[in-house]
Amino acid sequence: MVTRYSPFLVAIHWMVAFLVILGLVIGNVVLEHMPNDDPQKILALKGHMAAGIFVLVLMLIRIFVKLFSEKPPHANTGKLFFDKLRTVVHVLFYICVIALTVSGIGLAVTAGLFDIVFGNSGQPLPASFDAFPPLKGHQLFGSILMVLVVLHVVAVIYHQFVLKDKLISRMWFGRRS
Fold this sequence. Notes:
By secondary structure, the chain is mainly α. The chain has six helices and no strands. It has helices spanning 7-30, 40-68, 80-110, 113-118, 134-163, 167-170. The radius of gyration is 19 Å and the shape is elongated. The model has no long low-confidence stretch (mean pLDDT 93).
C-alpha cells in the first residue's frame, strides 16, 4: 500500500504552498498599500503576476497528475465531522487557488497590466484598480484562501502532534510504501 504521495506531487505541493503564501503576502502587505504611481509597484506586480500564473499552471498539472496517480488513503481523524471537513477544505483549496489566479488574470487583462508590467509599454498603472470588477473577486478569493491556509496548518499540527499519525510524512519525500 502507498503511504506517501509521489515525489512529483510532493514537489508541486510545496512549490504551490510557497508561491501562494508569497503571493498572499505580496498582495496584502506590499501591493495593497503601495500607491500605483510608485515606480516599484510595477516590479512588485511583475513578481506577483508571474507567481500567480505559475501557480495556475502547477495546480492544473497537480490536478491531472493526482487524478491518474496512486495515492495514500485519506488520513482519518476518527471523527466524521473532521473527516468530512477535510474533504470540503481540500476542494475549496483547489477552487480558491484556481479562482484567485483566474480573477488575477481577469484583472490584469481588464486593466491592461500585461502590456504595462511585462511589455514595458511605458504606460503608467491606472490610478486605482477599484474600477475593474475582477478586483473584488481577487480580493474575496484571497481572503478565503488565507482562512483555508490557517485551517490547513492547524489540521496538520493536530494530526502531527495530537493524533501523532505522522501526517506530514505523507507529503514529504521518501519511500512510498
